[in-house]
Amino acid sequence: MIAMAFLLGAASVGPGATHQDNQPRRRMRAEPVKQRKAVPKVPESRDSKSREPEKQEEPKPKAIFVKPNYLQHLQKLGPIPKRVHVFFPVSDFAKHHELSMVQHGIGNLVHQNPDWIVQIYDEHEMDKVIADAGDLIPPEEEQLLLGKSNTNGDAQAAAHFAEKADLARLIVMYKYGGLYVNFDRRINIPLNQVFGGDNPQERTARLCLPTFQDINFMQSVMCSAPQNRLFKEAITRSTDLRLHGGNQHGQEKKPLERRGGWIHKNELYALGPLVYNEAVANVVFDGSISLSPKDNHSKEQTKQHLALARAALEETNGVIVTALDAGCNSLLSREEDTGTSGGSGCPSMNKKELHDAFHMKPWGQEIQERWDDQLFAQK
How far apart are the first and last CA of the chain? Predict the structure, then answer.
């Protein structure tokens, strides 16, 4: 009907029509109108206009594997020495078995491993480790850490114990090897079980890389054969950040800011776990692994990266030992079966009890108090 109406209108001539309008026209044949298929209407929800677009699924990381040349490097090293390194301001703290932190940690390690040498470094002994590392760190870094007078004869305050411990653990791992463990770690597995038996020929492990949950590789538990280039790389990165990481407002790079000798707690964290994880990612692995917050990865992406990394480490035939630290179950501990319904196979460890016994504060709190103190603020 629509097409026929159009033809009839075109044939009529009204007033004011032109010559061209009066020309005979061929009669057009009307074609049937094609019916469009009805599209079902989706009912619109009340909040559809305000609904946020769905988040795109995050890309999965590509394959991650251990660098073959690094694995060859490890295989040329000797076994992990039966030597344990611990840093604590009071060297005989491991004798205080009345403290839960000692009873279920370092004290238990000493008791279970009589054939391992356990050395507890107080601050004086830790300073000596740094002072004897002239082949690994420059003199100006030693001056900043130990509070020695600089070339102008100006006295400087020493760095915080925790900052020195972060570097000293890398030094002892590179020079001497063995196991480094924080004083607050839970330990109830004999070390010979962890590293492959009593016979050095049977111990294939050359490095351990446990992860703290699915967050990062643990800096609080390290083990290695001596001369492992991973730790030399970590020392180099630590030096660079300490001496040249204080670039502020586009100015020339300079040492990190200090107040009374102590850097800010955020910088201390960067010099510890962050530097170590960047070294691990660069030296150990090939592929798309990223362990640095600078890459702005989500927690889920980091979890995927670490899961793939642990899987790659488990393919090294025991040369690199790994484990997921999940509280009571870790590389050095496991939840024990007490045999009773009310018993706990994971006894609590009270760090505050330890701090109170030795008149200590958590290092983060201690550093923040100094930075908040106007006496130490920069003028």
Answer: 91
